[in-house]
């Protein structure tokens, strides 16, 4: 039986949602790749790169605070089948937006992406805007979903330092606080369950890194 990768050791799959045929097909056909940069941390970025690698201006997905790279697996399957190159990224814990942008630039160079269309959801959308502001010549377009243009409304910058001392369980509750809890359609409920599962297997350092960026 093959051994699990280091990423899978850090984030073991637990719930039945990960055993569904479509997700299993995604993991078996689109390899997980780790890209280490010295800009952010000693931990690597995670990427799923689908479609023709000859395309130098792909669509890049950046997840929300409660999601990982694999939360876009349905989009990667559908769009790559139509001939598009699509990449989903997940970043390691990061404490500085400028460093995050420099690190993403290194990742894009490794993936040989000359320019990118950035799709960002929530926190991913805010970071996409910061990247476009910092590196406009590397950004072809922005597609923003449920995101924000200014973090001033949170007013938690000073207190965010103490999040590093919070236990993982409390941090995960904070991350999940923005997800809907009322009755919803079956497909939407399944996607929420997927995100809840994603957060439930985060390490404490990963959870605090995401909250820190949102603050």
Total of DSSP H or I helical runs spanning 4+ residues: 8
Secondary structure: helix percent: 25-40%
At the third CATH level, what is the topology name?
Answer: Rossmann fold
- What's the CATH superfamily, by name? Alpha/Beta hydrolase fold, catalytic domain
Distance between the termini: 43 Å
Uncertain ranges: 1-16
Specify the structural class: alpha/beta
Rounded to an integer in angstroms, the radius of gyration calculated over CA atoms is 17 Å
| 3D shape | globular
Name the beta content range: 5-15%
How do the strands of the widest beta sheet line up side by side?
1-2-4-3-5-6
What CATH architecture label applies? 3-Layer(aba) Sandwich
The total of beta strands comes to 6
Q: Number of domains in the coordinates?
A: 1
Keywords: Cytoplasm
Subcellular location: Cytoplasm
Protein name: Maspardin
InterPro entries: AB_hydrolase_1, AB_hydrolase_fold, Maspardin
